[in-house]
Description:
Distance between the termini: 160 Å
Structural class: mainly alpha
Largest sheet: none
Strand content: under 5%
Shape: rod-shaped
Number of helices: 3
Low-confidence stretches: none
Helix content: over 70%
Order of helices and strands: HHH
Radius of gyration: 46 Å
Number of strands: 0
Amino acid sequence: MSTFNSLSDRALDLANQMGDNLKHVVPHAGKWLETGAKFGVLKTGARVATVFVRRNPVIAIATAAGAGLLWYAAKRRAKQASNGGNGDTIEGTAKRVDARRGDNTASSRRSTTSARKRARSSKASDNAKSAD
């Protein structure tokens, strides 16, 4: 066997070995393509978001504030849920008191007041008549 023949056999073995390796790599190539596509979308989205923020800073600030409030509300709700749902409640008792009419009701006070006014006005009119 000459060196030329052994060299071609060796090259053929290497080619077969590389083909086998590529067969194992091909499923990962799909993942690499997906990852590359995701990076492309992320890059494009970041560029669009940057342009939007430059043109509309007030809307961007309001959106960030709203997101912060939503995050805070979710955090508080999770904290309340971990405390057994009690949260900031205060335990206590209450007693219902029914309103009853008594001697000192508003209507009896009104009638007394109006009677006093009538008495005063009649005295004033009597004094005015007697002065004439």
